[in-house]
Amino acid sequence: MQRGDAALRGLMLNALPAWERLTKALDRPDLLDLRGVVKLWEGANATEKATDALQTDHGPATTAPLNAAQLAAFNQALGTPVKAGVHFAGTAHITNPRDVLDTLLARFIAAGGTHLAARAVKITPETETVRVSTTQGDLTADRVVVACGVRSGGLLPDVAVPLVAERGYHVEWDHGGQWTLPNAVFEDRAVVVTRFGSRLRATSFVEFTRDASAPDPRKWERLEAHVRALGLPVASPFARWHGSRPTLPDYLPALGTFRHAPRIVAAYGHNHLGLTLGPVTADVLSAHILRGAPLPTAFSPDRFGLRSGSSK
């Protein structure tokens, strides 16, 4: 467990620098908001909880209590007063996830890459190559990186991949130009509110379930109730979303090559840290593939063994 914690901490320490390098390489520093995040408390023991947060180790993030003017700015914007808050510096968020994906794809194609709109259904290691069977036919490659989230295990017939769908829910809406404050975590409600340009997003809840199971509409209804109770500016109907975060039993990602298939590279199981760890994962896997740089054994994709009945 300690080795796993240390390995994950190493990735997390380099997560923000990796994002900064990526957005700089893309000539899109606007994709990264470096203003940090604020945690807020509403209850009678708000000051005590904020003090506890200030005294807790938060890794590379640094903390400072909100002053009276900063608290007043939130209270002027909210319908429910908050009594204490802590600002976390050294953290960031993506300003537009869709723009990040579109920009990366455009740069990849411009660099000579090929984008195939298809669904992979099976990956088969061969003597000198790897064959990927897709809904648009078979492809072969020298190396294949499996970064398919919660569905990664279905592509790997021999290795055990005990991924579970850690489902998240959010609602998103237009704020009508009425929200300019930093991203906020309403700790008493376990609700996170993030600004993406003209939109706000509220998220909470975790469900451990199957990827194909139906979502629970009560989760969205509760989120929408929190948004209204907080008095956040709402200038449009709510858009509802749910998605499955890929989570392994030890809560660590699977990174690196497989012993039985060294041309296949794992990059899945990042749970709720997928966006955070995307660029640093690309950095460490590139070094691993191109230069043989070692990866922490805690991330080994072989650590759960082979599927029952496999003879590999």
Q: What secondary-structure arrangement, pairings included, does this model have?
A:
Blueprint: H1 2-13, H2 15-25, E1 32-33, E2 37-41, H3 46-54, E3 62-65, H4 68-77, E4 84-89, E5 93-94, H5 97-110, E6 120-125, E7 130-134, E8 137-141, E9 144-146, E10 164-174, E11 183-186, E12 191-196, E13 199-209, H6 217-230, E14 239-247, E15 254-257, E16 264-268, H7 274-291
Parallel strand pairs: 2-11, 9-16
Antiparallel strand pairs: 1-5, 2-4, 3-4, 6-7, 7-8, 10-13, 10-14, 11-12, 12-13, 15-16
Helix pairs in contact: 2-7
Pfam families: DAO
Keywords: Oxidoreductase
InterPro entries: FAD-dep_OxRdtase, FAD/NAD-bd_sf
- Report the radius of gyration as a whole number of Å: 22 Å
Sheet with most strands: strand arrangement: 3-4-2-11-12-13-10-14
- The average pLDDT is 93
So, CATH architecture of the largest domain? Answer: 2-Layer Sandwich
Please indicate the count of domains.
Answer: 2
Low-confidence stretches: none
What is the 3D form?
Answer: elongated
Using brief descriptors, characterize the structure shown.
alpha+beta; FAD/NAD(P)-binding domain; 312 residues; D-Amino Acid Oxidase, Chain A, domain 2; elongated; 2 domains; three-stranded antiparallel beta sheet; eight-stranded mixed beta sheet; FAD/NAD-bd_sf; 28% strand
